[in-house]
Amino acid sequence: MVKLTLDSYLQKIGITRYEVSKRSGIIYPTIDAYYKNKVVRYDSYILDKICTALDCDISDIVSFEKDK
Question: Which of 52, 51, 55 is nearest to 5 (CA)?
């Protein structure tokens, strides 16, 4: 299962969702949905903008866990 870990990454580096929204140019409700892991279809454009804004790798905000 693919899971967004944006929430824990932002807590780790001490940046708010609002700050990510400002840096990336993505509206706050979209950032909030990614933060709360409520996204069903991941948009590569959005993920790219978030990673660019945070200067991080995709593996910092997305994880993959095999089904047990």
Answer: 51
